[in-house]
Amino acid sequence: LPDFSYKGYDYDTLRLNAHYFKTDSLSSFVEVRDPNLFCNAKVEAANLSGEMPLFALAPVCRHVSPQAPHLADSLGNARIDVALSARVTDLNTLLGEVAIDSLNLSGDSAHIIWSKPSVARHVTLADGTRHLFFSSPALDVDLKGRYEFADIYPSVLGVVRSYWPHLFLKMEVPEGGKENRFAFHVKVKEVEDLMRFIGQDISLKEGASLSGKLSAPDNSLDMKLELPYFRSGTSTLRDIKLAVNADGKKMSLYA
Known about the structure:
The chain has 255 residues and is mostly beta strands. Helix content is 9%, strand content 55%.
């Protein structure tokens, strides 16, 4: 297609090549060549009519720009370059492995996180356990266990509320995450880009970390926070170490 329209924007050149084989497999290649959205994706599939079909996807996007009207709200002033790869057997649960092989964000929006290359991998096993690893010049994240991304925050709040319900009398705590069990580790490496993303009048220094594990069904939480340096407004604190331990019966705080 030399040109096509989507949500009021006229794109240049969409190409699709697809081959379906008698061996119950599919090989296809999609390409968009537009000044504001230059992407291509290779999609392969095998055993399509079987119980465990295998999908292999490798999309690559260069120069994804908010100049396309329907991208403006989500991208702000950002431009994105990203390369993905995936080998999954279920497109709904993403059973298998999904990887961000490279990620670059650039622009003058306060919500740009990292303007330098970042990588991420997410693996989902047949038993439902997952492993997320994200690495960028600013931040490392490691998350292992059983979880749904949308339920991580509610599951942490739910455990804390079970011990201190009076803290949440005026706060609406979202439901969900009651079956989550996971371990996590977050480490801050390069502060400037991270602070630009947060967009608040606070400052950290390299070496800040948050780690621990949570079991929502047992109402247990073990979490440690270390901040070599923290400044908010005119207040400055150094060498902060906080710990939370909840064993299903009581919650203890250490500072």
